[in-house]
Every structure is written in C-alpha cells, then in structure tokens.
Design brief:
It contains 2 helices and 2 strands, in the order ααββ. By secondary structure, it is α+β, with helices and mostly antiparallel strands.
Length: 88
C-alpha cells in the first residue's frame, strides 16, 4: 500500500510497530493499529516492512506465504485436513 502523504521521519519509523506508539496528540487513538497488524501478519508466517521519505509518502510492503508454514499449530483439537473446493 502506498500513499503520497507527508512521509515519516527515521525516528518515527524506528518506533512504528511498537504498541502504544503514536504521533497523534494525547486522547486521539491508542497507537495499537500497526502493532496489531504486524502481530497478525507474523502469526501467519508473513512480514511487513515500511519505506517512507519525508515529503514523498509511505509504502507498506506486506509479504504473506501462499500456504501455512510447516508445523503450524491446529487449535481446533482435530487433525489438519485438506478440504475440496465447493462445486456450484
């Protein structure tokens, strides 16, 4: 995802994925959004990176695997199984 906004400083980029980090004034938002996004992406075996330059905008690069990594845990207490696609 790319925008053409104001971009971020190096200091902001260093803290971007920290829980409760925000550049907004007190009382506006919680600073959890990108921390939660990063956690979800990592839980699925992926990664998120950011490229940003002041005055030029920001680009978030998200890389997710096509299939779950080997050894993925199954929390359903049943065996992992493949499911055939539904035919119409």
């Amino acid at each position: 995802m790319r925008d053409t906004g104001t971009g971020m400083s190096e200091e902001t980029k260093r803290h971007l994925f920290e829980p409760f980090f925000t550049t907004k004034p007190p009382g506006v938002g919680t600073g959890l959004g990108l921390s939660v996004v990063q956690g979800i992406i990592r839980a699925h075996g992926g990664r998120i990176d950011v490229e940003s330059e002041l005055g030029r905008g920001t680009c978030f690069l998200i890389d997710l695997p096509r299939v779950p990594p080997l050894g993925a845990e199954d929390n359903s207490s049943g065996a992992l199984r493949a499911v055939a696609p539904h035919k119409r």
